[in-house]
Design brief:
The structure holds two protein chains of two kinds. By secondary structure, chain A is α/β, with parallel strands linked by helices. In chain A, 25% of the residues lie in helices and 29% in strands. Classes of the chains: A alpha/beta, B alpha+beta.
């Protein structure tokens, strides 16, 4: 028995010793020292600790690159051009890169480890992205599966954004979810109120972040987000604008309409909102106010499957059919779409089929 | 059966909270090979191939796409489908590089509702994987076989 215990003890001691050797080796052999990251041909230069991912190194310097998976190499959003120093493309990156991107040196910044000096390119607009600390001010049930979440900004205390842009909300580790993840949500806030950020969040069945929002978030909860991102916005023009959305695709249009009201924008605007039944409609009073406040705006909700009890006298049918009925000719108009990829593709087909040039169709696809 | 290093990394990606809220394995303690082999055997006994199952799921997604979240019929009206699409894509946990749109397809058939995602067809066709027992989105092979038979007779014009 004693011999057995001595053998087990010796084995344990060897294992602990080897583990210590590995920890020490990792600490010292993986020390890459300080590394220089040259950005956009030298317009900026960073001195960072080596050994971390490029995504984290940039984040540590308050340069936020969009990433939805927390740096696990699964979302493919954190692409940057690495001109030199990035090493070979890893198998984890390969599936996310097109042949053109590989040729141009595009990499997933979460997978590139900073081991030496790097020369990279970052789109200029990402330099205006900031990380924000905020707290939940209100949470409002808009429908059975959609909430309006209003955040009061803490630090920095204000956000500047273009109506139509989105932020990335951090969902912290909770329950069985071991690491924080980020999810993109369009801002629905009035840009004239920079001290608040507002989102419309629809519950995704078994979704990591929306489950957290619906079950854990409450007034007073501190949250972190970064942004703003995206290039969905109003474009110049004088012709009629057609807005089309479904579900939480409503969000950017709330912000855009608020900005139009602020500016007294006189452009004729028709907003088609697709839903299944009356219970899926929301913010109808706010849309009525926009109709009153804007010179030429109409909100046109359309139901594809109203309940018999809905007593619905409005538009019926798929949103594509409704838009098609209203517009036999779209040549001189602009369209702005926000919703699922399927909805957007179907709308683009309808609008293109009625003569709308592709350059007049702007969309924010949930993709 | 021990997990090889490749399987270990796949299982890590299949854990809850990594790629999806509930993960892909549920309460199943079997190895991936055992899960795949058992489900494949059940299909083979019924004379159904993974490709047939995946084709049916693809067809249901296509039908649901046309409905823009509105329930619509499929398989000659024997099935009703609706799909909720959300932002983002989800990668295949096997690390093959495939990325599917995030969506939940609800299939209403004979008083039951199955929830499938665009990953299902890929996982079944390419990896023979129906997900582990107890997983939120596991499609039981028996249900897959029933769906194939239902839609197969529908598309051939036969009645059952």
């Amino acid at each position: 028995m004693t011999t057995f215990l001595i053998a087990v003890g010796t084995l344990c001691a060897i294992c602990v010793g080897l583990s210590l050797v590995l920890v020490v080796a990792d600490r010292y052999l993986s020390d890459y020292g300080r590394c220089r990251i040259t950005i956009n041909g030298g317009s900026r230069s960073l001195d960072v600790r080596g050994g971390q991912s490029l995504l984290n190194a940039l984040g540590g310097e308050k340069i936020f690159i969009p990433s939805a998976c927390g740096g696990r190499g699964t979302c493919g959003l954190c692409k940057l051009r690495v001109r030199s120093g990035g090493g070979p493309v890893l198998p984890t990156e390969d599936p996310h890169l097109t042949a053109d991107e590989r040729r141009d040196g595009v990499r997933l910044s979460c997978q590139v480890k900073v081991r030496n000096d790097l020369d990279i390119e970052i789109p200029e607009h990402l330099f205006s992205v900031r990380e924000f600390a905020a707290s939940v001010e209100t949470m409002e049930d808009l429908t059975y599966d959609t909430k309006r979440v209003r955040l009061a900004l803490v630090a920095p205390p204000e956000i500047a954004f273009v109506p139509g842009q989105y932020i990335q909300l951090q969902c912290p580790a909770y329950g069985d979810n071991p690491e924080p993840v980020y999810r993109a949500y369009s801002l629905s806030s009035d840009p004239a109120d920079p001290r608040h950020a507002e989102m419309l969040i629809r519950l995704v069945p078994k979704g990591i972040c929306t489950t957290w929002v619906f079950t854990r978030l409450k007034p007073g909860t501190p949250v972190t987000f970064n942004g703003p991102y995206g290039d969905f916005r109003l474009h110049d023009g004088t012709g009629e604008m057609i807005f089309i959305a479904g579900g939480s695709g409503m969000a950017p249009f709330c912000s855009i309409l608020a900005a139009m009201r602020q500016a007294g924008n006189p452009r004729p605007t028709r907003y088609f909102f697709g839903a299944k039944a009356v219970r899926d409609l929301f913010l109808l009073d706010e849309m009525k106010r926009f109709e009153s406040d804007l010179p030429d705006f109409r909100f046109i909700p359309a139901l594809s499957a109203p309940d018999p009890t809905d007593l619905w006298n409005g538009e019926r049918g798929l949103i594509t059919d409704v838009v098609g009925r209203h517009y036999p000719d779209c040549r001189d108009k602009q369209a702005y779409l926000c919703g699922s990829p399927g909805m957007i593709d179907a709308c683009i087909n309808v609008l293109s089929g009625r003569g709308m040039p592709p350059e007049n169709i702007f969309y924010d696809k949930f993709a | 059966m021990k997990a090889n290093p490749g399987e270990r990394s796949i299982r890590e990606r299949m854990a809850p909270g990594v790629l999806s809220q509930d993960g892909f394995l549920g309460t199943d303690g079997r190895s991936l090979q055992e899960i795949v082999a058992a489900d494949r055997a059940e299909l083979e006994r019924a004379g159904v191939t993974p490709d047939e199952v995946a084709d049916v799921i693809d067809g249901l997604h296509a039908a649901a796409d046309r409905g823009l979240e509105t329930p619509c019929p499929a398989c000659d009206g024997r099935v009703s489908v609706e799909e909720i699409e959300v932002m983002g894509r989800i990668p295949c946990p096997f690390g093959c590089g495939y990325r599917a749109h995030k969506a939940v397809l609800r299939v209403h058939v004979a008083g039951r509702v199955f929830e499938l995602t665009p990953l299902h067809a890929h996982l079944i066709r390419e990896h023979g994987f129906f997900q582990g027992r107890g997983a939120a989105f596991r499609l039981e092979p028996a249900d897959a076989i029933a769906l194939v038979r239902l839609c197969r007779t529908a598309s051939s014009g036969a009645t059952d």
